Amino acid sequence: xxxxxxxxxxxxxxxxxxxxxxxxxxxxxxxxxxxxxxxxxxxxxxxxxxxxxxxxxxxxxxxxxxxxxxxxxxxxxxxxxxxxxxxxxxxxxxxxxxxxxxxxxxxxxxxxxxxxxxxxxxxxxxxxxxxxxxxxxxxxxxxxxxxxxxxxxxxxxxxxxxxxxxxxxxxxxxxxxxxxxxxxxxxxxxxxxxxxxxxxxxxxxxxxxxxxxxxxxxxxxxxxxxxxxxxxxxxxxxxx
Length: 240
Ligand SMILES: [Zn+2]
Known about the structure:
The protein is an alpha/beta fold. It is about 45% helix and about 15% strand. The strands form two sheets. Strands 1, 2, 3, 6, 7 and 8 form a six-stranded parallel β-sheet that branches. It has a two-stranded parallel sheet with strand order 4-5. Helix 1 runs antiparallel to helix 2 (about 20-25) and helix 6 packs parallel to helix 7. The structure holds zinc ion.
């Protein structure tokens, strides 16, 4: 389910509380605590990929990124990392940044504090066991967060990361539409004088093997278009 779908469903059921619920999900909202989005350099772009590793798209994506000598950020699910440790190692070996996307992708708005802690701790342990590197960033599934989630993340020394451009690529859209979404978002951020943090998906949270080649092709198109321009591709640790 998409963040947008979640907003629609929740807002319909609880219109009175809609403002607060929306604030907890809108990716750029800071009302429930600060999250990392992007820096103030309008030429910087972070490609971020959620819901992997996925053997139907992550290897192809790694090839595209390597061809363009670009590093990206991968927010991985612990359950998938356990199934494909070789892919996690390949992502790390290529110099990309790996972040926590929980073990099983629950909506953290509806999850008890104890389970939130367990989801974050276990995912960290799986990723750190495979890569040998400390995990420092988390993207909450669906972008859903509340004060308890941010507090637990802080206690685990994890920086929550949101986004300010959405590829809307979690259901079949086609490369063309994903590219248009990315381009429009980047233009808007540049006009506002900030960097672009692109939300994309190299996997699907419902099952391993999600079709994500449209996303891979959209990334390739973006990297080709930006080659030779002043755009700089960064990982989210460039911003804090
Ligand atoms: Zn996700």
